[in-house]
Amino acid sequence: MIGAVLAGGRGKRFGGDKLLFKISGKPLILHTIERLEEAKGVDEVVLVASPENAGKLEKLGYRVVVDELLVGPIGGIYTALSLGDAFVVAGDMPLLVPEFVDFVVERFKGSKKPACVPKWSNGYLEPLHAAYSAGFKEFIQEKINEGQYAINRAIRESDACYIEIESLPEEWRESFFNVNTREDLGRIGKYNRP
To answer: What is d(CA 47, CA 63) in angstroms, rounded to the nearest whole number?
Structure first.
């Protein structure tokens, strides 16, 4: 199981490359990677980059694959799945809960479904905190070929397994937190583990 960190966003709302913005002395994306590495169900962490930021990310010492499609998260997931089954997260999720990652991976393996995605009771999905099978790549390919770039729609049209978020420990929800603005950085300091 690959831990795929999507790192192709441009950080418009943040005002610059937020993934390399240093927090507590290390780039934001490294906080995400280190939490992902703590998950027992993840064998290797791979970064999915855009052509323009691949070089900078390679300096972090992890395998980098380049998303040539540039059609948003669906393209990043597609690129990650070329390497095998993957647990996919966004690079700006520094509060990942390793136990939650493992829970999703276990449910995914047990379900034998193409994807296993956390879902809120209002129907909202968390596609960037989910596990996908390598076989799901073909389904995504069809959607991309049709010009449908919404990953949520692709998940809903597939035979996915859903994890009801409200039935899980409440503290796991911080795993979904992502940094969009500089104001969000204040939350990380508050949550940083010793």
So the answer is: 6
